[in-house]
Amino acid sequence: MKTKMLLAVSAAVLALAGTASGQTWGGPRAVLHDETTANSVILWTPGVGPVEWSPEDGITGMPILLKDNIETRDMPTTAGSLALADNAPGRDAPLVARLREAGAVILGKTNLSEWANIRSSNSISGWSAVGGLTVNPYDRTRTACGSSSGSATAVATGLAPAAIGTETDGSITCPASVNGVVGFKPTVGLVSRTHIVPISHSQDTAGPIAVDVATAATVLTAIAGTDPADAATAEADRHRTDYRAALDAGSLRGTRLGVLRYGVTNYSAETQAAFEAALASLRAAGAELVEITAAPQTQGIGQMELTVLMYELKADLNAYLASTDPAQVPTRTLADVIAFNERENRETVLFGQELFLQAEATSGLDNPDYIAARANSLRMAGPEGIDRMLSENNVVALVAPSTSRAWTNDREDQDNGQGSASRLPAIAGYPHLTVPMGLDRGMPVGISFIGAKWDDARILSLGYAYEQSSPRPPRP
């Protein structure tokens, strides 16, 4: 049986997109399933109305939306699951506290792929039992990708200049790319993950989705830094900088970039043409492009990554659930969540929970299979993958199409995703930026800039320089 879940997108709201000075952000005060927002927002912050802000204001007064797996003191945090519908522990995640301290305005919570897309291998990106289906504003029959679906579509439709997403593998860069906005996955350990519903402590990170690279850099400057409760961020204060001030429109001049040519032919002719045009823009801006035609040796890395995610999901989610209020969250373990889903038909109406079951069957983080999978996948993605391609080709960053145009929400047709640049930087924990590069049959596609660990400032600057020298795709 074919499944298509469609929501109309109001032309009036879509017309809000842009970054004009003094723009009012926040749109209509939507409720769940309000069709005028591409179903981007689960909940607006109580008492916060539409906000007037312009890029010249910087982080001060910037209206920002948060993916609904990030805790705030004034709203529930559901990860899209009815099991967490009453999860309101009254605490800000450290990244939220940093945003508030910097003067940002938290507008509300965005929809997401439920549990950040880790419940089922047959899930529908952008769907959650709490929020329904987030749609792509360029074509509502096509995916908004995920899991940070609502964060990307909210920015694309002009509800906010920036939103926070989270990524384990592709969950910032894919929705940003297919919705025609900027998405940045920082080095894992640059931004705190405390009080964010987790999947994997090895790969999880939060990061900005924004109208442009400058806005993303402004947000990253606010949220980056060491958190004593998150050991992965121990070095963050040493590496963080003013990412907005570090942007240089001339940073491509004389810079050697590696073109990941080996995966390009998987994409449609239109995406390949957009990528060639992007490469021409890079050359025109002074970049020296080096063709990388041989893929690194990564046989079995996908299965290794899945093994890591399954083991860490059980351990990390159990730890998170134990930190919540049992009066609000009766599901205290992954096993409890599985049992809840078995009882609650609204959770399993479209797909099951086979990945949850697989994770629950794992034995613990001292298992040799898990330890080997993490060590081997990290080695393949980092030292023998990205690092080797950078060093052997004497380049400072890698570029590739971020992913294909958005595919349909029909799981039985032949219009599917054609590739992704996310896996190696996700597993290695390295920075990955996507910037709009053009259209494929009216649908946005992005170009990825990937760099070495802690090279976040340079990656953002290269993407900024590209953005200044290339035409932006039209807004939806």
Structural account:
This protein has 476 residues and is an alpha/beta fold. The protein has a single domain (39-469), classed as Amidase signature (AS) domain (Amidase signature (AS) enzymes, Alpha-Beta Complex). Helix content is 30%, strand content 15%. It has helices spanning 11-14, 94-102, 149-156, 173-178, 213-223, 236-239, 269-284, 301-322, 334-343, 354-360, 368-392, 423-428, 456-469; strands at residues 23-25, 41-44, 51-53, 63-67, 105-110, 127-128, 132-133, 162-167, 182-185, 205-210, 256-260, 288-292, 397-401, 432-440, 443-450. The strands form three sheets. An eleven-stranded mixed sheet has the order 2-5-4-8-10-9-14-15-13-11-12, with helices on both faces. Helix 7 links the parallel strand 11 (256-260) and strand 12 (288-292). It is globular.
Which key phrases capture this entry?
476 residues; eleven-stranded mixed beta sheet; disordered N terminus; Amidase signature (AS) enzymes; 30% helix; 13 helices; alpha/beta; two-stranded antiparallel ribbon
- The residue fraction in helices comes out at 25-40%
- Count of discrete domains: 1
Class based on secondary structure composition and strand pairing: alpha/beta
Radius of gyration: 20 Å
How many strands appear in the DSSP assignment? Answer: 15
Backbone shape? globular
- In the CATH hierarchy, the third-tier topology is known as Amidase signature (AS) enzymes
Helical segment tally?
A: 13
Oligomer: single chain
CATH class membership = Alpha Beta
Q: In sequence order, what are the helices and strands, one letter per element?
A: HEEEEHEEEHEHEEHHEHEHHHHEHEEH
Strand content: 15-25%
CATH superfamily: Amidase signature (AS) domain
